[in-house]
């Protein structure tokens, strides 16, 4: 079994969607893109993609549609509103939905897709926009197994690993579980670094200790260089992390899992947003705890 052609529709070409779509276009796919942001469509054209005037126009007659949307509200609007994307898709088409969204919103899309005989693959991405053009993203997938098998070569065009987890919303839970670990790690790093500085350890030295220690996850290693430079430009913002923590808490409440740590970390991000750090990198937790500890910039 193989895809009928190399044509793809791509809905939502934002910070992470555009480099993914560009990789697929460079790999030989005929990509038709749509985004409500006209400047993004101009960038897509410059990268060799066709630009559609609406989502419905973009997906019409395409066997494969990929979407990358910012939140539940955008997902519901794009997929479910009158004249939305799913209603415009051909029966038998495959929808690869890569956004980080809640289980309830995803389930609503699943019901609409099933009614239209569209194969809906929940395919949330792990990684951020800074590596989207490298192919080093990973993804978790749930939905019809046959569709996943068919579409794996497309996924391999922009991710280095694809993990199939089940037929329903398993991939959504996987992404929320991973992001909970990332949020908790950011909070943990902030307190660890502040404690070390208060104990007289130089900033480069404690970063090297963490980088070379048993707690050095890929995230810790990845963040060492920007922390050393005190670079808090957002790869993933505090506002985005707060949004994801709200999804995480909602999912936990729905299935009866007490997420006490997640709730505490969400309050930290609420404080960061209130202090003007909404658009700062999620590791602004470091500066937050430094301020609470009476620490200024390291020498």
Largest sheet report? 6 strands, parallel
CATH class of the largest domain: Alpha Beta
Q: Which structural class fits the helix and strand makeup? A: alpha/beta
Helix content: 40-55%
Going by CATH, the homologous superfamily of the largest domain would be NAD(P)-binding Rossmann-like Domain
Mean pLDDT: 95
User: If classified by CATH, what would the architecture of the largest domain be?
Assistant: 3-Layer(aba) Sandwich
Q: Detail the poorly predicted runs.
A: none
CATH topology assignment of the largest domain: Rossmann fold
Q: State Rg.
A: 20 Å
SSE string, helices as H and strands as E = EHEHEHEHHEHEEEHEHHHHHH
Beta-strand content: 5-15%
Give a count of the beta strands, DSSP E runs of length 2 or more.
9
N-to-C span: 61 Å
Q: Tell me the strand order in the biggest sheet.
A: 3-2-1-4-5-6
Global outline: elongated
Number of helices: 13
Walkthrough of the structure:
By secondary structure, this protein is of the alpha/beta class. It has two domains: 7-167, Rossmann fold; 173-292, N-(1-d-carboxylethyl)-l-norvaline Dehydrogenase, domain 2 (Orthogonal Bundle), CATH 1.10.1040. Helices cover 51% and strands 13% of the residues. The protein has 13 helices and nine strands. The strands form two sheets. The chain has a six-stranded parallel sheet, sandwiched between helices. It has a three-stranded mixed sheet with strand order 7-8-9. Strand 5 (94-97), helix 6 and strand 6 (119-122) form a beta-alpha-beta unit. Helix 8 (170-198) packs across helix 12, helix 8 (170-198) runs parallel beside helix 13 and helix 11 packs antiparallel against helix 12. The longest helix is centred in the middle third of the chain and has 29 residues, at 170-198. The N and C termini lie far apart (61 Å). The mean pLDDT is 95.
């Amino acid at each position: 079994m193989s895809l009928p052609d190399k044509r793809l529709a791509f809905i939502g070409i934002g910070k992470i969607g555009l480099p993914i779509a560009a990789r697929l276009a460079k790999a030989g796919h005929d990509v038709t893109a749509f985004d409500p942001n006209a400047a993004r469509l101009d960038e897509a054209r410059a990268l060799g993609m066709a630009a559609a005037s609406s989502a419905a126009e973009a997906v019409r007659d395409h066997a494969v549609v990929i979407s990358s949307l910012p939140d539940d509200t955008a997902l519901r609007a794009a997929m479910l509103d009158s004249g939305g994307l799913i209603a415009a898709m051909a029966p038998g088409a495959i929808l690869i939905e890569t956004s980080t969204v809640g289980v309830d919103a995803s389930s609503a899309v699943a019901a609409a897709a099933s009614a239209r005989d569209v194969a809906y693959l929940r395919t949330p991405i792990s990684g951020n926009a800074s590596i989207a053009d490298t192919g080093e993203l990973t993804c978790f997938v749930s939905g019809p197994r046959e569709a996943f098998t068919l579409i794996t070569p497309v996924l391999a065009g922009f991710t280095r690993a694809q993990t199939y987890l089940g037929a329903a919303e398993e991939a959504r839970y996987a992404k929320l579980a991973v992001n909970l670990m990332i949020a908790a790690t950011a909070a943990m790093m902030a307190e660890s670094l502040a404690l070390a500085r208060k104990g007289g350890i130089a900033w480069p030295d404690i970063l090297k200790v963490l980088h070379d220690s048993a707690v050095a996850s890929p995230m810790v290693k990845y963040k060492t260089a920007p922390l050393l430079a005190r670079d808090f430009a957002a790869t993933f913002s505090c506002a985005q992390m707060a949004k994801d923590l709200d999804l995480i808490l909602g999912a936990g409440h729905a299935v009866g899992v007490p997420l006490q740590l997640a709730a505490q970390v969400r309050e930290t991000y609420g404080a960061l947003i209130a202090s003007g750090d909404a658009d700062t990198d999620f590791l602004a937790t470091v500066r937050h705890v430094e301020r609470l500890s009476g620490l200024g910039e390291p020498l």
